[in-house]
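CORE FACILITY INTAKE
Project code: CF-77B
Contact: R.S. (postdoc)
Sample description: multi-component assembly, four entities in total
Requested service: structural model of the whole complex
Turnaround: standard
Below are the sequence entries exactly as provided by the requester. Do not edit them.
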Amino acid sequence: MISREGGIACYQQLSGILHKQIEEGEFRPGKQLPTETELSRRYKLNRHTIRQAIGRLQSEGLVYTIKGKGTFVANSKISYKVSRKTRFTTSVLDVGLSPDARLLDSYEISAGSELSRKLNIKSSDKVVVLEILRFVNKIPFCHTTSFLSSDRFPDIQAHIKGSFSLYELLKKHYGIEAMRASSSFEVSLPESSDMDMLQISSKVPVLIVKSTSKNSKGDIVEYCITRFRGDLCSITVNFNGEGR
Amino acid sequence: MISREGGIACYQQLSGILHKQIEEGEFRPGKQLPTETELSRRYKLNRHTIRQAIGRLQSEGLVYTIKGKGTFVANSKISYKVSRKTRFTTSVLDVGLSPDARLLDSYEISAGSELSRKLNIKSSDKVVVLEILRFVNKIPFCHTTSFLSSDRFPDIQAHIKGSFSLYELLKKHYGIEAMRASSSFEVSLPESSDMDMLQISSKVPVLIVKSTSKNSKGDIVEYCITRFRGDLCSITVNFNGEGR
DNA sequence: GAGTGGTCTAGACCACTTA
DNA sequence: AAGTGGTCTAGACCACTCT
């Protein structure tokens, strides 16, 4: 099965083999992969070499491992849609899944140089920070840190505790319809806080999306940083204003 | 420096330390990091543990390694901008860097089921495939595979060899102004072809962007898949039609 | 030839899950 | 208690770069 010659590393070959087997349905989503010791025996490779191969599959989002239990085949990625006007809840409902959210924390800070630029306010101005963890089908999906000017949204901390859709709240309480103006996409690896909150290992990449929202007049309403589980989603951006 | 207790893995601690040192400018971009054996001595850790730590930094795009030479601190990410009307060349020039492109291959295939859906043509229709490798400052940056209907763009293979801007070509020869309609973003790890073309190791993630372009009437003009080096770029999407 | 990173092996101990 | 994945060590050989 595994060739020692040919210059292709054993772990690359093995991850290729497993990748193919998963793609072809030999291992179904949710099913356990053979254990590391079993694969080690079967392919006559050291357990560490097996682990290198499985590490790749983890980073690709093809499998996930649970300590003490085993390695399992992942479900296919969730196609998460984003346009000028989209909210998490509707996007997730659209693809037939069930969304959920939890407000982890809310507090106030001074803007400082970077946030003052992002929000177009003075650096001494106060900023409300909201940390929200969002779930799809009870699985942690992304972690959002939102920044809003305290002056423009007084008492938002009190209001947010009741409702979980920030956009609904802005509309109802402040009469503002927020629209996405720009978003940047970047890849990284999880920090320890990401690993805890999103329940992923250090090998699973995170997709970092930094977005600015404006109101209909073009004033900046919100700046937010969302960290998505890279193994769970692909994000589709729609450039035609309206459509989802 | 490294604590054996506290439950945090040594390699996590070390990658944290190095991360911080790089961020704080102790190691400048382009400079070589201490070698693995040196770090092994300095932190009293096995070379494999050192390698785990460095592997993380590689995936984060903070450092890159050259076999036989060493590990070096990477430059900061290139902020690549994308909007409804953007071309690679102008985007790169905008940030003061020098773009370049090479046509790797061009050939014709039958659409098949997936492409026929993407391009809104019959599955028996012919499709022209263009493979283009793009560079920023002589460094491979992304690899694009473009799909266009052969019927709608006769002789495009002959034309493309002269000019490298596909959008220019569509405009000049076919009188079509292509606009980005939607793009999906996804993270993965490089396949062996990616590693060769983009000159990256297996640890550096790739950012996969799949885009559909339409003409002013709303007909689909092009479907393309671009694989960006995840260590080199962050991609900014602008939702206001015009702006870059 | 000396030094670098890339791969593989062998063996150990740990924390966690399951039964 | 047995089995799982997570981490660390020690030692080996390779291909590559530099001189």
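Facility notes:
- Residues 72 and 229 of chain B are 17 Å apart (CA to CA).
- Chain B touches chain A at residues 8, 12, 56, 59-61, 77, 79, 83-84, 179-189, 192, 202, 205, 207, 230, 233-241 (CB under 8 Å).
Invoice: internal transfer
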